[in-house]
Structure to design on (624 residues):
């Protein structure tokens, strides 16, 4: 069931366009991420849904209701800001109680709800602290508790992890996802960090310059990127230039420096035949050790650089005048290569994605 | 002492401090003289002129008039200045910086210009408020409000708007979000601005010179008028009371701010 719907939403600030013709449909209970580089309009999109920014054109519907003209306080949407926005002149208790006090709940009930919210985020005992007495991770927990306690229809998170250090970020990533799952709340998560989006989301919308480029599950976004931009933005990519020889449905054969390889087409595009194409292969999809001597495609290359990273070893391989990065698990059954070794490069026919 | 101040800096700081304190010292000592005339150093020390000030109808009424005027000016300036600062900080239009400069202009214009301009305006416009307490009040408000705009503007600059947005999406109306979130966080700036407005109004001379009514003179004008004819130390004694009042108001507000903080920490 579609729960949140953006129809041809756009936002202009003076002459600059922050969001252009956005159409999004988000399911109930879904963890949906807006992913894109800085300035692409993610926060603006989120702030339009929260009611802080009025769209220039278009309509936003939540649960069938048109909310486009409603002020924030009439929307029943909880938002966690990048800097958490804990009220500095109030205790943790009063921060979490704020929304309940605004709803004029009886004191006893407020106390009860705040207590259970504190327990839920693991902050029992911190009631009397002030913002300045909390660590980044603790502020985050308070900010989330403050929002969840009012049981909003939708939870919005704007880069909630970017102010934390790396270790904390990893920890909170799973923690937020787990809370979201157990509460079952429809969540929209804004981030420019592809690993956060891939780990946490049910679906991701990749944005650039105010437009949505692709919407899909993490697997679809990672394995079938719709464009070169997305491929390069998400994960690490090897991009090989070649010429399209032949197209059979969604499969395309490509000539790379005289060797024929195959790639999947993201759109069924027969017109590509005879034109220059880019083949995307992820570093971890490439093998330097054949399982089977007859395996194809097979390109000849030379090891130019070796980067040892403990659990994996990365090789930069020169193929003709192009280079690919290859990531190989550090396992005893896979022989270690040396600089300037000649190698054969393989990948499954499915692992290459051909893009115009 | 953890932090050491370099010696040259320390000497400069002490010199600067003395430079600032010296005029105050001169006034206080001159007001405590036993002699007939204003001199420095004073001829002996006594409370003679302080008592004379307390018995002087002219000075006492001027002192209380100035006090009331400063209080009324403070109230209006605080409200107007806070509203203006909020407007400048929150609105997003092209002329914002120009508007800010315009609001602050009474501070940079010489007081004589502001006073004279208002006087000319009151006379020619036929409002009937030239040389009345109403005209004087308006002049003082005009002159004091920029200080409130300045201090409130500074505290709004450090105030994070997402706090207000968070309150809104938690269900607070714009008014309630302001009262419960924004106001407590800029209260220090408002308080500082209102002390400024009070002190500026209390010590205002040039604007008052053009606008004050003959029968109700603020203290600086009364002092000036009497010093023009005779150089008597009761003017300096009046100065002592003015200095005391200003210091007391600063200390008092500091105290209030701290008490408010303490109260907040205890409830909830
Ligand atoms: N209030 C505003 N006035 C004018 N321009 C704005 C305003 N808010 C955002 N913009 C512009 O709109 C564009 C999108 O901004 P937005 O904050 O949505 O980006 P973002 O994707 O959240 O970026 P980041 O990852 O850096 O937070 C930017 O070019 C920004 O400069
Ligand atoms: Mg942003």
């Amino acid at each position: 069931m579609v729960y949140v719907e953006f129809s041809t939403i756009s936002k202009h600030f003076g002459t600059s366009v922050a969001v252009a013709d956005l159409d999004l449909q988000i399911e109930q209970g879904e963890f949906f991420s807006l992913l894109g580089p800085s300035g692409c309009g993610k926060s603006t999109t989120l702030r339009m849904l929260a009611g802080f920014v009025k769209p220039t054109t278009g309509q936003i519907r939540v649960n069938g209701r048109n909310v486009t003209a409603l002020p924030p306080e009439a929307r029943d949407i909880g938002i966690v800001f990048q800097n958490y926005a804990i009220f500095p002149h109030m205790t943790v208790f009063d921060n979490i109680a704020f929304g309940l006090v605004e709803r004029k709940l009886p004191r006893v009930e407020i106390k009860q709800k705040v207590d259970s919210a504190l327990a839920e985020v693991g902050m029992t005992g911190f009631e009397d602290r002030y913002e300045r007495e909390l660590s980044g991770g603790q502020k985050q927990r308070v900010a989330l508790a403050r929002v969840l306690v009012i049981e909003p229809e939708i939870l919005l998170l704007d880069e909630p992890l970017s102010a934390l250090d790396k270790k904390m970020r990893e920890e909170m990533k799973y923690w937020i996802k787990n809370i979201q799952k157990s509460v079952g709340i429809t969540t929209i998560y804004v981030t420019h960090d592809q690993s956060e989006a891939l780990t946490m989301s049910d679906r991701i919308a990749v944005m650039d310059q105010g437009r949505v480029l692709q919407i899909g599950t993490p697997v679809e976004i990672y394995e079938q990127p719709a464009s070169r931009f997305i491929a390069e933005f998400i994960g690490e990519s090897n991009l090989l230039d070649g010429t399209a020889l032949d197209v059979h449905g969604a499969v395309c054969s490509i000539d790379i420096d005289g060797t024929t390889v195959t790639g999947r087409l993201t759109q069924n595009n027969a017109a590509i035949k005879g034109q220059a194409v880019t083949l995307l292969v992820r570093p971890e999809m490439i093998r330097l050790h054949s399982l089977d001597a007859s395996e194809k495609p097979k390109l000849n290359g030379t090891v130019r650089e070796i980067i040892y990273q403990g659990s994996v070893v990365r090789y930069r391989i020169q193929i003709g005048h192009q280079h690919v990065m290859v990531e190989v698990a550090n396992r005893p059954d896979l022989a270690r290569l040396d600089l300037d070794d000649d190698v054969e490069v393989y990948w499954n026919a499915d692992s290459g994605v051909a893009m115009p | 002492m953890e932090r050491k101040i370099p010696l040259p800096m320390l000497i400069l700081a002490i010199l600067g401090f003395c430079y600032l304190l010296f005029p105050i010292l001169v006034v206080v000592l001159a007001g405590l003289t036993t002699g007939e005339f204003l001199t420095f150093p004073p001829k002996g020390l006594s409370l003679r002129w302080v008592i004379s000030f307390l018995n002087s109808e002219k000075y006492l009424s001027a002192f209380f008039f100035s006090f009331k005027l400063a209080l009324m000016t403070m109230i209006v300036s605080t409200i107007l200045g806070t509203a203006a600062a909020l407007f400048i900080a929150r609105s997003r239009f092209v002329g914002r910086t120009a508007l800010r400069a315009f609001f602050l202009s009474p501070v940079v214009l010489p007081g004589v210009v502001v006073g004279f301009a208002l006087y000319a305006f009151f006379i020619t416009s036929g409002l009937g408020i030239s040389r009345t307490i109403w005209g004087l009040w308006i002049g003082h408000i005009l002159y004091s409000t920029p200080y409130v705009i300045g201090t409130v503007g500074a505290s709004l600059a450090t105030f994070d708007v997402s706090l207000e947005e968070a309150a809104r999406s938690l269900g607070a109306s714009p008014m309630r979000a302001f009262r419960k979130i924004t106001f407590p966080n800029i209260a220090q700036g408002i308080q500082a601005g209102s002390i400024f407005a009070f002190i500026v109004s209390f010590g205002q001379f040039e604007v008052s010179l053009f606008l004050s009514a003959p029968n109700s003179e603020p203290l600086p004008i009364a002092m000036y008028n009497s010093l023009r004819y005779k150089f008597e130390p009761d003017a300096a004694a009046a100065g002592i009371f003015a200095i005391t009042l200003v210091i007391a108001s600063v200390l008092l507000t500091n105290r209030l701010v701290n008490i408010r903080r303490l109260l907040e920490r205890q409830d909830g």
